[in-house]
Amino acid sequence: MAAAVDTAAVAGATGRLRVFFLPSFIRGHLIPQTDMACRVAAARPAEVEATVVVTPANAALIAPTVARAAAAGHAVRVLCYPFPDVGLGEGVECLATATARDAWRVYRAMEVVQPSHESLLRDHRPDAIVADVPFWWTTGVAAELGVPRLTFHPVGIFALLAMNSLFTIRPDIIGRASSDAAGTVLSVPGLPGKEITIPVSELPTFLVQDDHLSKAWQRMRACQLTGFGVIVNTFADLEQPYCEEFSRVEARRAYFVGPLGKPSRSTMHRGGSGNADCLSWLSTKPSRSVVFVCFGSWAEFSATQTRELALGLEASNQPFLWVVRSNDSSDDQWAPEGWEQRVANRGLVVHGWAPQLAVLAHPSVGAFVTHCGWNSVLEAASAGVPVLTWPLVFEQFINERLATEVAAFGVRLWDGGRRSERAEDAEIVPAEAIARAVAGFMEGGEQRDKLNARAGELAERARAAVSEDGSSWR
């Protein structure tokens, strides 16, 4: 990882190399890029000063991580700039805190922030720039300043290659999506390795209709290719042969630096105010007995689906730790009457934010019901926890195929009806199916033994990757 920026090539004659990190307004991007800044500063403490450039509310989310790095003597600081005025309430500066109907405003903010970034970078003149994918314009500013710009990708290599390949047949996909053929299964063209298939209904929205991302996709990719290089939060053993292909066709230089988040209890407040009580509760449960259920900070469940999940977890008769988004539990009827009392002895519900890395590192956790966001897939593999997959939006259905078909440390929770990246087109997953999947896995057998073994193997490889001279360190 220390080699992600060539300090000898760009450092000034005196002082530390000043690297600016610009994450976008998505918590799943903000957290790993902050981890990256801290790791770079820790790897070269006498040579590198890392600055995370964020808006005020997002600065609050990363403050504990930055404070911990600073306390260790590493040169990490935060530089704030105003969040664009796009009609959001005070303090709402990322997708996790915006309502579903206001999500478009967050994406709009990512577009109109360009002048602020350009002015800030010209004023501060850093020695290197690491910018999130949406901020394509930083490539031009970096060229103007004569410094390297690296693109930071918080999405895995497998999904990136798949989406780039599918983009080449986008007219055909749009035609199928607008007809009765939305359930048609496509083969992803051009991928190395085994054939990967996916229904049109499970593809990201930008591949099936015009939106902000479809309009910017090729421009972001072009700026990535002309920049100094690309940094990806993954490790090679999780995504071969795809890492080799990515290095060949998608970047001048590719650095696979993950997993950036190390499973540990010290990550309690990484990305939010973690609930310490849930770790104490986990410590009262037998080894590998608890199902961890979490669907990230982005997608929302309907009240009907949330109640079905509650009933399914109850009927599974398995211990569970369920993180419920604040928006998902805002309705008084989010769970059936009396449900919390009935499951109190074996289930714990955390409302809002939980310390996922610390939870996954806990020996009582035996499975992870996940939406297959990239951070969750990577963190589960790194912790050696098998996954029961329930993708919801964007590239999560593609990530699911990595977890279940390629890396093979997970299994689909439900495959009994129509799934879709568009929530209004997806069928409700019934409580009976949830209970059957959770109980069937946790009660053991050949499938669980096989997935446990594979997850454990990936965890060993993740640890080796981030050790000194490992594949993610070099």
From TrEMBL:
Superkingdom field: Eukaryota
Pfam families, A to Z: UDPGT (PF00201)
TM region positions: none
Enzyme class, UniProt record, top EC level: transferase
E.C. number: 2.4.1.-
GO terms of molecular function: UDP-glucosyltransferase activity
Keywords: Glycosyltransferase, Transferase
Family in the record: Belongs to the UDP-glycosyltransferase family.
Protein name in UniProt: Glycosyltransferase
Species, as recorded: Zea mays
